[in-house]
Structures are given as structure tokens and as C-alpha cells.
Write a structure and sequence with these properties.
Number of helices: 17
Order of helices and strands: EEEHEHHEEEHEHHEEHHEEHHHHHHHHH
Shape: globular
Helix content: 40-55%
Largest sheet: 6 strands, mixed
Radius of gyration: 20 Å
Number of strands: 12
Structural class: alpha+beta
Amino acid sequence: MVDIDRSGDGDIAGYGNGRSRTDHQELPRIPAPKDEHTRGWDQRICRLKYLPRLCLNPLFFLALVCAGCATAPRWPATLNAIQRRQIATRPLRVRPWSTGPAQGVVLCSRHYRVYTTIRDPLQRRLILQVLEAAYAHFMRLVAGTGRIKPLIGYVFRNRRQWAAFTHRTAGRATAIYLHIESGGYERQGVFVVWRTTLPEVLSVIAHEAWHQLSFMALKDHLPAWLDEGLATQNEAITWRQGQPHFTPFRNAARWSVLRLALAQRRLIPLQGLVRTQAGAVILESSSDVQIYYAEVWSLMLYVTHSRYRGALLKLLQAARRGQLTPLLLRAGLTRQEIRGLTVRWNHRAGPLLFTTYFSPHFAPLQHRYLAFIRRLTSSWPPPGEGHRVR
């Protein structure tokens, strides 16, 4: 979830997803699988995105809240035995992973090809269902998105397999990736994760699915607060009648961090939050990283459930069409900075897009947003779910 880039001038670049397939600096290659159904993906995968995304454990603070539980749950809490039996009867398209590890397979759905070493057929089905739900959610939010070729992902059974794959494919980014303690990364439109617990890996996959689709479908980069904020909306998953539903208000991990940060007066002011480059946050303490993600989660909750939802949809359409770049050029950024996702790009783009699309002044919205945070953290489950907020 955290992107770090060492660009040519030594900057640590912020978030965002490169869109122009010809604009990227050539970095070490991640070979595309050579199976017949994935031919033609080599260039799309091998032009590596600048920014490796470190997936911090999204359930870390939830684990603290639930301290005393001897073992992590095998199944999502809302997925009962009846639903599991229903899902187990659904068709599952599986192909051999001819160049992969022993017992590795390729899971095939309408929009995804997932290379995995997970053996449990039910867990395989759940992975595809969550990904297809993330795809449908993106298409609803970014209306008019055209057809996207099947998306590629890797889900390994354990960290050892994930690390071996990363060693073989990530080139000079390997050392950065191997600092990841739980989750995985997304790079150049391909996600690579491993299973810790099933509920957690589904959450991580759904988060990375946003970044993957953003990379593939939008012509312009999104600054960190937007890209990560939108990705966190996929993390909380509720199962109803055997189908996954994203319930962003029910993100207990982010909620608990936000509540503690509010009590300790550690919240990042809105004007600072929208210019913060997430790759720099990772250099701070773990608690600072968690606070950053909790805040972009709550900010996006506020935006999507308030008068500002229309502005968000308008911004996403502009990004889809490539209309953000001219705005940034007029603001003094160079094309190289925009393509390179430099610190200066994120520092300028974050506030500029905020003041252009949401509010020309920070103070009034800061006041309303802080009131929203107080209501949000006043009780669990959070009040306001499914309702428009002021």
C-alpha cells in the first residue's frame, strides 16, 4: 500500500499509478508468465511501475483490539457454514501453471487470471469473488471505463514462496519488497501477495485491486490521499448470501487507529494530509503510517458520503480522460515531474486537486471533517453507515 520510488534525481516519489505505457523509465523486468492465455502481457507487466507498494498489515490494530484470541479465524466472520457450502458448489475454472511451483494453478474468471499456490478450492473461489466485486465497484465509481484485458495477480500460500518469486522477478526493488512483513505489493498493474490469514489476504487483495484498476484504466495519476483513500474503501468485506460486499464504515482496523489518534491529538491537519507523500510516511514510525492510512480512509468515507461525492466522480472522470495533466502543467509542474511521481508532484497535485474539485478553502471543510471524525469514532459500529453526512 505504500509506494517508494527512487527517481533519477534522488527523490522518493509519492503514490499514484503511471498511466502512459510509453512514458515509464525502463526498470528491471518482472517476466510475464508464458502460458498461452497470457501471451501479449509481457510489455504491460515488464514496464515496471516506479513505486513498489508495501502492504502494511491492515488488521494489525484489530488484532490488538482482539488480543487474547489464540488463533486467527480461518474464515471471514460473516461467512457462515451455509454460505461456504453454497460457494463450494459454484464452478471454478482452473488451468495448470506450467512454469510455476509444484501444485501451482491459474484461477480464471471473467476479468482476472490469478496464479496461486493456495490449494483449498473454496479459498480459491473466494479470491476470485472478491476480485470480481472490486472490479464491479471500480466500474460503478468510474463510469465509462472501457474494456480491460484480463488482470494478472499472484497469491502465494506462504511468505517463503512469495519471497522466492520476488527474488526472481523484482530486480533492484527486491530489497525494498522483502521488508514487507505482511501482505504484498502491486506494481505496474500486477499484484503479488501471500496469505497470512484468509480474511486478511482477501482484504489486501481487494485493496490492491483498486490500485491495479486505477493503473490500467486511468490516464492520469491520482495523488496519494485519493489513491490510497479509495483503496482502503475495499478493505472491509461483509458476506451476504454468499456474495462479498464492501462495507467501508466497518473497517475496524482503521477505525481503532483513528479513534486513538483523535484522543491523543495526533491527527494530521487536512491541508497537510492531502500533500503528504506516502512513500515518505513509511520512513516514519509504524504508528505514523497507521494514522496516515486511517485518516485517508476516513477522509474518503466523508467525501463519498457527503455533498462532495459528485466532485469525486467528476475528478475520476477527468483522470480517466487524461484531463488532470493540463491542470498540473498550468500550475508549474513539468511533464517529467508528473510522469515520475516525484515528491514535488504529490506535494503540488494533492492540494491543487483538492481545492479545484472539493473546496477552494481548507478551513471550512476541515471543521466539518473533524466533526465527522468525532461522530465516526463515537461508537462501534460507527454511526452514519448508509446515510449521507453533512
